[in-house]
Design a protein that fits this description.
The complex is a heterodimer of chains A (111) and B (240). Chain A is an all-alpha fold. Chain A is 78% helix and 0% strand. Chain B has eight helices and two strands; from the N terminus they run αααββααααα. The chains are: A mainly alpha (111), B mainly alpha (240).
């Protein structure tokens, strides 16, 4: 079908690329598992977990899902909206802090 | 049924690079995603909506975890297994992660062989992906039965905050459902590839349309998304 013909030409990547990314994902997963295994805590733990998570997600979306080779119009239409979830995260952080405050202040039995 | 018009309005049109190109694409006639087929564009839009569903689950998990006054059960201990006399924290989840990543690897290669029109290798790799996915679901079933046997319920558990159970069953349950649907999807498409539907342009059962090898990539998009969601669940639910 002529509709996909121009697309097919762009998706011929060597198998090696996928194997390298696969290996990278294995290493990153091992690293994030080791964070738990060695029992790291605090900001070190949080930042390492989030860095490995973002790197893994980036590799999957960019290479496995071919986003790196898609037209920018599609790339931005798909990848920009999820970043707005971060605003939602901010709102819910505020909300849960308030809920926690109310629970501690009004409902936890005082001596 | 009338065939789709075989012209591609986007092919061969050169656009300015960067933002000017995006504006040109979005303000143009007929279609915004110029060289992207409708099947792929719709799968991406579906995945975007699914992203919001999983975001809402993870956000509600974050909210209940941050606002509870009870201690949250330690996932590292809850999901530990004793293998060969050694107590290994979170090992089951680690193995599940590796299995799902491997299935993404085989899927990516299946897509590649699909575009090379290598019917046999594509089908075998898709079936390998489905097998790894089924293994993942099996391990999840094991995990669920282990936790249920230990007394975890959506309304309570022996270790602390009651919200742990409800978040766990909701999030992993929805993810497991996605994996299961993906396995079924993969098996159906692998059968079509194996039979040579896309080489002979055989018409589909539901749509009566001719398929092509791009469906392997679209199936792959769904499968990689399932893996992608697991990356976030692994980091935010199990490791946090």
């Amino acid at each position: 079908m002529s509709q996909v013909a121009p697309h097919i030409e762009t998706q011929h990547h060597p198998i090696k690329l996928y194997l390298v990314v696969w290996g990278g994902l294995f290493v990153l997963s091992t690293c994030s598992y080791l964070v738990d295994y060695f029992g790291l805590v605090g900001y070190l733990r949080w930042s390492l977990i989030l860095i490995f998570m973002v790197l893994k997600a980036g590799l999957i979306v960019a290479v496995f899902m071919h986003m790196a080779w898609e037209r920018l119009a599609l790339l931005y239409a798909i990848l920009v909206p999820p970043t707005l979830v971060l605003i939602f995260v901010g709102i819910m952080t505020f909300e849960s802090n308030y809920t926690l405050f109310s629970r501690l202040f009004f409902f936890v039995a005082r001596p | 049924m009338v065939d789709m018009p075989r012209t591609n309005p986007g092919a061969g049109i050169t656009r300015p690079a960067g933002w000017a190109g995006i504006v040109a694409d979005w303000s143009s006639d007929q279609r915004a995603f110029k060289n992207v087929s409708w099947g792929k564009a719709m799968m991406w839009i579906f995945l975007l909506s699914d992203t919001f569903i999983f975001s809402c689950f993870l956000l509600s998990y974050m909210t209940v975890r941050m606002s509870t006054v009870e201690p949250w059960p330690n996932p590292s201990e809850v999901f530990a297994l004793t293998i060969g006399g050694r107590h290994i924290p979170l090992i089951l989840i680690a193995i599940m992660t590796f299995i799902l990543i491997s299935s993404s690897g085989t899927m990516a290669m299946a897509v590649n062989f699909g575009y090379r029109r290598d019917r046999r290798r594509t089908a075998i790799l898709m079936l390998a992906t489905a097998l790894l996915g089924a293994t993942f679901v099996g391990m999840q079933a094991f995990e669920w039965s282990k936790l249920i046997a230990e007394g975890v319920r959506p309304w309570g558990n022996p270790w602390g905050a009651a919200q742990f159970g409800s978040s766990f069953f909701m999030i992993t349950g929805f993810h497991g459902t996605h994996v299961t649907i993906g396995v079924i999807f993969l098996i159906i498409m692998a059968r079509k590839v194996w039979r040579g539907d896309f080489d002979q342009e055989r018409r589909g059962f539901f749509t009566s349309r001719k398929g092509n090898y791009e469906i392997v990539e679209i199936t792959g998009l769904y499968w990689h998304f399932v893996d992608l969601v697991w990356v976030f669940i692994f980091a935010l639910f199990y490791l946090w």
